[in-house]
Design a protein that fits this description.
Blueprint lengths: L8 H27 L7 H4 L3 H14 L8 H26 L8 H20 L9
Length: 134
Amino acid sequence: MILFTSVTKKTYSKSMISLIGIALFCTIFTFVYEKFSYGESSLYMRFMFLAPLVGALLYLLAQLGMTWMTNRLSTQLFNVTIATIVSGCLCKGIIEVSGRTTTLDQPYWIAAGVLFVLSLLVGLLLAPKPQATV
């Protein structure tokens, strides 16, 4: 018996729309946060919206069958990667806006890299094999 969880194009569309919404929220959040930060700004916070947009672009490519996201686990790992990058940008941005420096954001980048590599490996190694037609 072969068990397989299919990741359909409908799932990709919903994820793509969600990530575009998250990118829009990140943009609005950054605008409001910097409005009340007495003129201070952070590049990490300003470019925080790029991670969800790149994710949405990859989901668009996944709809066309051009990415490694072929199963549910690789897709979920990719979603966690995007969330980790956005969280790291937010953490670093808030600290920079407050006028301090820290290395507390480094685990975010390491975790995001590991999760992305795991997503790639799971997507490429556990990809469903094409069925032979008779």
